[in-house]
Amino acid sequence: MNEAPVLVLNAGSSSLKYQLVVPETAEVQAKGIIERIGEQGSPIADHDAALQAMQDQLVAADVDLDAVGLRAVGHRVVHGGPEFSDPTIIDDDVLAEIKDLIPLAPLHNPGAVSGIEAARAEFDVPHVAIFDTAFFSTLPLAAATYAIPRDLAQKYRIRRYGFHGTSHQFISRAAAELVGRDLGELNQIVLHLGNGCSASAVRGGVAVETSMGLTPLQGLVMGTRSGDIDPGLHTFLHNELGMSIGDIDTLLNKQSGLKGLSGVNDFRELEQRRAAGDEGAQLAFEVYVHRLKHYVGAYLALLGRLDVLSFTAGVGENSPALRAAVIEGLDGLGFGVDSELNGERSTVARVISPDRAPIAIAVIPTNEELAIARETAELLESRSD
Ligand code: AMP
């Protein structure tokens, strides 16, 4: 077995997360984060310096990249636009295309580009781009299309792309394994509930609907993002308050969601405040749950039949109260959780619905780094066959 690790890089505009992981065994040899890249007063001027800082951390942790025999670098890239529907070996042309997608993801893709450029200069191994949008490239046109003038949408590549795809794909595969059935025969809903939140409907391993859209702002209520709102709100805020588009973008991305409703974006803190009788925290919880039920119902109707519903990411994996609230009242539709199983603290994938329930409800820890490492390794193996 190939035991050489893959270096997984998740480069944002001001941070670089890394993990050195063996795809086949899931062994994590090192991981860390370099923060405050390019910020005033920070010693880390740019992504080259961040990569250097990462290597210093590896040396300090006694990890010798030459000795471990680095297999490849897998880069998380948020937006793959209409072009990229699969993991892709990065060459100069691919890098140019990722740059060309910056208008679609101005907050995310520039960091990835800088990370790729720095890492290609440093590591002479294959570099692979894993796109957050790729899993959703299979959305049927009816799901991916906004009802706006077609020529405008086509010219500017405006459509629903979806995000968190690496996690949704990883979880839907893991769910099939967990329930011991073929991925191809399962209809699934995946709820990825972390700081960012998204839902997906997956038929036979293929994504058919997801809650995020052109940007990661659409859909569920998130830590600081509003999710779905009436697009007419922009006009209202502009006309009544004189807010600029930039102000509105900040409001909806950074000051809304749980934070806007309750003052806190961290779900643990929200639960504490709710338990203490805080009215804003209670409302935030209810709005969050209401939106989730709305999507679960919609996806059930789209799929026609559901086999597995999975909860994942920080909130989905760790909040029994949230999971119970989403499922509450849905017994007529075949959903139910065993409250003892739901309440157990665990870090392994598990089923929390009663035995022989028509719909299996699962809690599955996501692991995007491992998923990226695996997809990177699979692509390289398929090329060497
Ligand atoms: P992620 O983006 O997947 O890291 O998820 C972050 C979110 O998960 C934050 O809102 C955390 O408050 C929440 N979270 C983490 N641990 C717990 C927990 N034990 N109970 C409730 N929420 C949690």
Which features does this protein show?
Nucleotidyltransferase, domain 5, six-stranded mixed β-sheet, binds adenosine monophosphate, 385 residues, 12 strands, alpha/beta
Could you write a compact summary of the structure shown?
The protein is built from 16 helices and twelve strands. The chain has helices spanning 47-60, 65-68, 92-100, 109-122, 141-144, 150-155, 165-179, 232-241, 245-254, 257-262, 267-275, 279-303, 313-318, 320-327, 339-343, 368-384, and strands at residues 6-11, 16-21, 28-34, 72-77, 88-89, 127-131, 187-193, 197-203, 206-210, 308-312, 350-351, 360-363.
How does this model look, in words?
- There is one protein chain.
- This protein has 385 residues and is an alpha/beta fold.
- It has two domains: 126 residues, ATPase, nucleotide binding domain (Nucleotidyltransferase, domain 5); 204 residues, Nucleotidyltransferase, domain 5.
- The chain is 42% helix and 16% strand.
- It has 16 helices and twelve strands.
- The chain has a six-stranded mixed β-sheet, with helices on both faces. The chain has a six-stranded mixed β-sheet with strand order 9-8-7-10-12-11, sandwiched between helices.
- A hairpin with a 2-residue loop joins β8 and β9.
- α11 packs across α12.
- The chain is globular and about 55 Å long.
- The protein starts with 5 loop residues before the first strand and ends with a helix.
- The mean pLDDT is 96.
- The chain binds adenosine monophosphate (AMP).
- The site of adenosine monophosphate has 12 residues, from α11 and α13.
